[in-house]
């Protein structure tokens, strides 16, 4: 696999997938997402891999979707075009990564904005650096939330509403308190801590790991997770329809909000 935006390494039963677009804060253009999906599938298909680690080079885990690349291209000028594009890369990819039958761990530092949540939420565990900040400010763009609705499941209904209504952010410590993050570690210890956790898990029987993951995911699905994510994706699309009706472009291009969010995160 020829990697431009994603690095891949497998050793000691652990596949490490690394986002490698640090100059753009690992913002997600279509090529990055397609390479990322290919890396996930490579790890899923490798019988030697027992645990998958997702990490990112640079100061930030991910600034979300690269709006210029995915939001207003001339080939995506109707709601049907937007729906097809986002259904594949923003919903199907995330659900597929969630259901890979191997444990996965996300290592998050810096900002994790909107589309960045679509990368870490599908992982089974999240370890955050103490400077990590999580947010979904797309209400500022006239849209009610990012495409993969994990908010309610990750935070509970009232905190999810607060996060969405105010377009505010969560620190790593707050995310841990609400159960969205498993552990918070110093920034300079992030990769070591994740590797140690992955190594401990990789020593377990792969069939038992698969069944344990399947049990938890199926329980969430019985509670309505899968159906909810699918239905909320359609609600998300009405935001694009609203933007198209008002401006003629898929989203309201309030890039200043995203730039402000990329300011140096507080430790």
Automatic annotation (TrEMBL):
CDD domains: crotonase-like (cd06558). Pfam families: ECH_1. It comes from the Bacteria. GO terms for molecular function: catalytic activity. Coiled coil: none annotated. GO terms for biological process: fatty acid beta-oxidation. This is Putative enoyl-CoA hydratase EchA13.
